[in-house]
Design goal:
The chain is mainly beta and 457 residues long. The chain has three helices and 23 strands. The protein is 5% helix and 51% strand.
């Protein structure tokens, strides 16, 4: 099946004729990444071996454009080298990443409907993004209506998504503790964010307007409603409201974001969380120095009737909270009722250093906990709120057209408080007034990635 796709698409384009063929494009992507992990996502313990593997994404992307209609199909194969035998007949690594059609309701294409599986990228992808760093990335089954004003000074999007009940057992690696392996799955899916499954229904509204026609920046507003259905007659809503302004003040760019979250969990526990972000970048220099902070509220361990931790939902979290993915990337850090919502205060500084025709990006993060870090040897005592420091370095270069190379290295200098929130600091059995930290001092991560993006047609 896979071998026959490319010839069929090419033949189809030829048969459409020269005029139609000019509107048909066929491109691809081959992106292998080799990683060495020694303390990635959580501190490594003494005696733990370094993990080494190569993961690759292979995509074939076909688009076709007409005056009133557009279509896009993106199929991908995501695999780790060696996981499939050399004479294997088939595997479950092939999937559809995007498959949607666009219907333009006016001649200029300012008003349009997009229906099908599609990426959703909004603002800086803090709560809704395509997660392109991950080999599999992220896409949604949705109906979207988009309208852009004739002078492009403002834009509005409305998105509706509905996840059908699952009636076929999913592979074990996709199972969620709160969904069954068969029968009706009222939650709408098993690939959850945080420790909740995908919502049964979703409604997103987004509005963006330019300030001084973009000369002074812009501001966006987003409203997200997600319904988690426990039974056919009960839906637990989660509401997220956000504003994202960007201001241009001479050579300084100010970017901010504020979000508030409310509603109830699937277990009818109240939710009240927030996210605050602010950063400033000096764009008058090639180094583009940046300073900023992110504050995500954490769950108060003293309360059991409410979750105060903010859930960043479907954001591209690898982009924000350190590249070693210690926070909000499918892993927890010391929440109360919700084990993944301990909260985070991230103070950071970033810069870009031009190196000939390449560049080196350097980030420095200082992580702190906005909630109490409990001493596992004595729950009445608290540890320091300082969690650690992370350094991220990425060197990248465009080798030739459609071929890019990136090399990265990150190191985490963690404290015993980080070990505690990651469950690596325990009470000493011989003396329960003392703690034992079996993590190593060195926590590092290195990777190299090459990205081929050929244009076939």
């Amino acid at each position: 099946m896979k071998k026959g796709i490319l010839p069929v698409l090419i033949l189809g384009g030829v048969l459409l004729g020269e005029k139609a063929f000019a509107q048909f494009s066929l491109s691809g992507q081959y992106r292998p990444r080799t990683e060495l992990r020694d303390g990635f996502k959580t501190p490594a313990t003494k005696g733990q071996e370094v993990a080494s593997f190569t993961e690759q994404r292979t995509r074939l992307i076909a688009t076709y454009k007409m005056p009133k209609i557009e279509t896009k199909f993106s199929i991908q194969d995501v695999r780790i080298w060696g996981e499939v035998g050399t004479i294997n007949k088939s595997d479950n690594l092939f999937s559809v990443h995007e498959a949607f059609a666009v219907y333009k309701t006016d001649s200029l294409g300012k008003s349009r409907f997009i229906i099908g599986r599609q990426e959703l990228n909004y603002d800086d992808q803090r709560v809704l993004g395509s997660l392109d760093w991950a080999a599999q990335a992220r896409s949604f089954d949705a109906l979207k209506y988009a309208y852009k004003h004739s002078d492009s000074t403002w834009e509005f999007h409305s998105i509706i998504s509905f996840n059908q009940d699952g009636t076929i057992a999913e592979p074990s690696k996709l199972q969620n503790s709160k969904t069954g392996t068969g029968g009706n799955n009222y939650n709408g899916g098993v690939s959850g964010s945080f420790n909740q499954p995908l919502p049964k229904t979703s409604l997103y509204l987004w509005y963006n307007t330019k300030l001084k026609k973009g000369k002074r920046g812009d501001i966006s507003f987003i409203s997200m409603m997600e319904g988690y259905q426990e039974t056919p007659t009960m839906v637990s809503p989660l509401y997220t409201f956000g504003v994202t302004p960007t201001l241009k003040l001479g050579k300084v760019r100010i970017h901010a974001a504020g979000y508030y979250q409310a509603g109830k969990t699937r277990d009818s526990i109240g939710i009240s969380g927030f996210l605050a972000h602010l950063e400033a970048t000096y764009e008058g220099s090639a180094f583009k120095p940046t300073i900023g902070f992110d504050l995500l509220s954490g769950d108060d361990k003293k309360t059991t009737d409410k979750i105060e931790g903010f859930n960043p939902l479907h954001g591209t979290h690898h982009k924000f909270y350190g590249h070693m993915d210690y926070f909000y990337v499918g892993n927890g850090h010391n929440g109360g009722v919700n084990g993944l919502s301990g909260g985070l205060l991230d103070l950071y500084a970033k810069t870009i250093v031009p190196v000939g025709k390449s560049k080196l990006a350097a980030d420095l993060h200082f992580f702190m906990s906005p909630t109490d870090v409990v001493n596992p040897a004595d729950a009445a005592k608290h540890l320091s709120s300082f969690l650690g420091t992370e350094i991220d370095l990425i060197w990248s270069k465009q080798l030739i057209e459609n071929v890019g190379l990136s090399v990265g290295y990150s190191q985490m200098f963690h404290t015993e408080s980080m070990s505690a929130i990651k469950g690596k600091l325990t009470a000493d059995p011989a003396d329960t007034s003392k703690t034992i930290d079996n993590t190593t001092f060195y926590q590092g991560w290195a990777w190299i990635m090459i990205n081929f993006t050929p244009k076939f047609l």
